[in-house]
């Protein structure tokens, strides 16, 4: 399973990229708002992320509410850079805009997906990526991972070669809160987990690793002091 980072923060993206294990970036309107960016700076900011992550897919979300608005904004966003993926919401307008943009060769990431039926509709409408949300289920005491398992099972056993520009659909486990979400997503066959920096650090660190590193350093200090 590949790792995307779920942030619009350039410093976080640069740090995660420096680890050599980053395969892409996802953003959303809330993550952009967290950067304190202004409306007029949104597209230049998405371009900065795309340039920082040249060759890696960077999802930039449309905030339009109509088919026409989503298509127009999607064309603008995808024209910013070849690695920009247009994120659209799972609704009637999002499906129609997804089909229109996919027919123009634009890669679409269908977001705010909470069921296998939504995922199937999105894949048929030409979505290149589908983002089932896990954590927001857990936030309301439901089981997001079981929904993710349904999405993976339904999407993985079908040939989507004639539905979108790349002829394949990848599932991005989204709304990730914990390392267990990452592990379970990988075990059930999600293609990607998009993970916020806080959870990425929890995936990276382990108390036994940290203790082992400290004891190696202490023992080596004895060697160098002899
Ligand atoms: C990613 O594409 C989603 O927008 C993101 O993972 C949502 O995460 P949240 O549920 O923590 O807002």
Automatic annotation (TrEMBL):
Main location: cytoplasm
Any one GO biological process: carbohydrate metabolic process
Compartment(s) where it occurs, according to its Swiss-Prot or TrEMBL record: Cytoplasm
Entry's EC annotation: 4.1.2.-
Keyword field: Cytoplasm, Lyase, Schiff base
CDD domains hit by this protein: Transaldolase_FSA
Listed PROSITE patterns: TRANSALDOLASE_2
Pfam families noted in UniProt: TAL_FSA
A GO molecular-function descriptor: aldehyde-lyase activity
InterPro entries hit by this protein: Aldolase_TIM, TAL/FSA, Transaldolase_AS, TSA/FSA_arc/bac
Any one Gene Ontology cellular component term annotated for this protein: cytoplasm
PANTHER family: FRUCTOSE-6-PHOSPHATE ALDOLASE 1-RELATED, TRANSALDOLASE
Protein name: Fructose-6-phosphate aldolase
């Amino acid at each position: 399973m590949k790792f995307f980072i779920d942030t619009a923060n350039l410093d976080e993206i640069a740090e995660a990229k420096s680890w050599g294990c980053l395969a892409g970036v996802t953003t959303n309107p809330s993550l952009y708002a967290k950067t304190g960016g202004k409306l007029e700076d949104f597209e230049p900011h998405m371009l900065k992320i795309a340039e920082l992550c040249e060759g890696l897919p960077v999802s930039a979300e449309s905030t339009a509410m109509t088919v026409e608005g989503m298509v127009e904004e999607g064309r603008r966003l995808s024209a910013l850079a070849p690695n920009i993926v247009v994120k659209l919401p799972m609704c009637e307008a999002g499906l129609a805009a997804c089909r229109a943009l996919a027919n123009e060769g634009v890669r679409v990431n269908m977001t705010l997906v909470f069921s296998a039926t939504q995922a199937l509709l999105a894949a048929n409408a030409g979505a290149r990526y589908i983002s089932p949300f896990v954590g927001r289920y857990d936030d309301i005491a439901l089981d997001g991972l079981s929904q993710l398992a349904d999405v993976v099972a339904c999407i993985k056993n079908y040939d989507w070669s004639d539905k979108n520009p790349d002829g394949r659909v990848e599932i991005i486990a989204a709304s990730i809160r914990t390392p267990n979400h990452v592990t379970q997503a990988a075990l059930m066959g999600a293609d990607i987990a998009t993970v916020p920096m806080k959870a990425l650090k929890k995936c990276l660190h382990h108390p036994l690793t940290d203790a082992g590193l400290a004891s190696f350093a202490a023992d080596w200090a004895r060697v160098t002091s002899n």
